[in-house]
Amino acid sequence: MNNNSRIEPDLKNNSYNNIGEEVSDDVSSLESVDAPLVGTVYLSAKPDEPQFVSEGDTIKKGQVICIIEAMKIFNEIESDKDGVIRKILVKNEDPIEFGQALIEIEPQ
What is the DSSP string of 41-102? Predict the structure, then answer.
């Protein structure tokens, strides 16, 4: 199969453009809230309760967004900024690493 896609240099901006492909989502304004420790993430306080936050929610600095369990200690993770949650990047009970992005926020 012949693929006619080409990548051509943009000599003015010193970058490359993929011909025929447009990028439609502007994510440059999004910021992440990152995990402050290694552990297991929980998106709600208990299995039968709703998540602390959902995509599209407006949140405030200091609002709990999830819990991270590390060595049998449950740590509430709070947002460090005001904004609207655009994407939750982890799933309930995912193992996570230090510095891993948990959610993406559009700051307000």
Answer: EESSSSTTSPPS--TT-EE-TT-EEEEEEETTEEEEEE-SS-EEEEEE-S-TT-EE-TT-EE
Query: Would you state the CATH architecture of domain 29-107?
Result: Beta Barrel (2.40)
**Which residues does residue 16 pair with via DSSP β-bridges, in sequence order?**
9
78 DSSP β-pair partners: 64
The rounded Cα 97 to chain-centroid distance in angstroms is 13
- Residue by residue, pLDDT tens for the chain (108 residues) are 555 555 555 555 555 555 444 444 555 789 999 999 999 999 999 999 999 999 999 999 999 999 999 999 999 999 999 999 999 999 999 999 999 999 999 998
Q: Is the pTM of this model over 0.85?
A: no
Ranges of each domain in the chain: 29-107
Give the torsion through C-alpha atoms of 58, 34, 28, 11, to 10 deg: -170
